[in-house]
Amino acid sequence: MEQTHDGPTLPPATGSTPARRRRKTDDPARRAVAELLAGADVEIDGERPWDMRIHHPQTAERILARGSLGVGESYMDGWWDCAQLDEFIAHVLAARLDEKVGATALMVQGLRARLFNLQNLRRTWKVGEVHYDLGNDFFEAMLDPCMAYTCGYWARADNLADAQVAKLDLICRKLGLKPGMRLLDIGCGWGSLMKFAAENHGVECVGLTISREQAEYGQARCEGLPVGFRLQDYRQFNRSGSERFDRIASIGMFEHVGAKNHAAFFEMARRSLKEDGLFLLHTIGKNRRRTPTDPWIDRYIFPNGELPSLGQIADASEDGFVIEDVHNFGADYDRTLMAWHARFEAAWPRFAERYGERFYRMWRYYLLACAGTFRARSNQLWQIVLSPQGVPGGYRRPG
C-alpha cells in the first residue's frame, strides 16, 4: 500500500508562475544543493523516482546548515519528498555527499563520541525506552513471525520469514549447538534466537536485554522452554565470572556498546565463556573507524549508538579471543529493511492515530534511508566467530 502523506504538512504555494520560477532560480542555497545533488545524479523536482521534490522554500538552507540532520528533519516535517527514498539515499552516499554538507554537525557528533562515554550505565537504558519499548504490537506488525529485528540471510530465501529462519539456523550451525549446551544471548531482543535454539537444538538459554517490554513479551513466547530473560546491562552481568556458558551469541546489540566500552564487552564475554566455547558476534559495522554516528539516527532512532569498524572489533577482542571467521552479508540488510518497510506501510492504518503523521515520516525515513546505506555499501553486516584459545585443528564455517 503506497501512501504519500503529503497533505497537511505542505505549504500552500507550490505553483510554477514565472515569478516563482525566478525565485527558485535566484535562491543561492537551492542552487548549491542542486549542484551537490547533480554529482549524485539526483535532480530537484525531477521526474525520476529518486529525484527530490522540494515543497518548502527553506529546505535547501536547512540541509546546507545541518547536513544529515537537516535532510531527515525536513523530510519528517513534510518539506520535501521522493518517490523512491531508499534509492535517493543510495545515490547520495555513493557520491559521498554526506561528507560535503553539514560538516559542523558531523564534527560535533564526533567530538561527543570522543569526549564522552555516550553508552555509560546512566545512558544505557535510553535506547530501550525510546526505541524498543514503542509497543510489541507495532514490532509484531513490522517483523517476521520469529520477531527477529536484525538482518535476515537471503542466500536461498525469497521472503522475510524464510530469511530470518535461515539466519537463526546459520547462527546455530556456526556455533555447533548440541543438546544440553548453555547459550548466553547478549542483547536477546524478544528471544528469537533463544526460542529457535531451544526448540531445534535442545539448548538451555539465558538472554540479556535492557527493554522491559522485550523481556516480558519474550518470556511469554518462550513459555515451557528452558529460556530465561534477565533485565540487565551486560557490564553488570556475571561480574565474578562464576557463571560459564558453552556458547555465546550477540545479535544486533554491539551497535549500542560504543568504542569506549568495547573492551568491557569482550571482557564480559570472555569471563562468561568456557575455554572450549565459541562466541558469535553479529553486528552492523562501518568502513572506517573515524566515521561519526549519523546525527539524525542518533537523535531520533538509536540514541547513543555507535557502529564499530572491523579494526575496532579486532583491537578490542585480541586480548581475550582468536578471530576464527568473518562473514560479511551486509547487502542482505537492504532486502531485510525493504521487507520491513513493506510490512510497516501495510500495517500503518492500524497505528496512525496512536503515533501520528510525523512518526510515520520519521519511521519511513529510518527504514528506507538505512536500506540505502547498505545498498551503497556504506554500512556492512558482519558475523564474526571467536574462540578463547583457537579451535584445535581450525574452525570450519558450515556450508
Automatic annotation (TrEMBL):
User: Which EC numbers does the record give?
Assistant: 2.1.1.79
> Which terms are listed as keywords in the entry?
Lipid metabolism, Methyltransferase, S-adenosyl-L-methionine, Transferase
Statement: the UniProt record of this protein carries the keyword Methyltransferase: yes
**Listed GO biological process terms:** methylation
Q: Which InterPro entries match?
A: CFA/CMAS, CMAS, SAM-dependent_MTases_sf
Is Lipid metabolism tagged as a keyword? yes
- Region annotated Disordered, chain positions: 1-29
GO terms for molecular function, please? Answer: cyclopropane-fatty-acyl-phospholipid synthase activity
At the top level of its lineage, which domain of life is listed? Bacteria
Q: Which PANTHER family match?
A: CYCLOPROPANE-FATTY-ACYL-PHOSPHOLIPID SYNTHASE
Recorded family membership: Belongs to the CFA/CMAS family.
What protein am I looking at?
A: Cyclopropane fatty acyl phospholipid synthase
**Taxonomic path:** Bacteria, Pseudomonadati, Pseudomonadota, Betaproteobacteria, Rhodocyclales
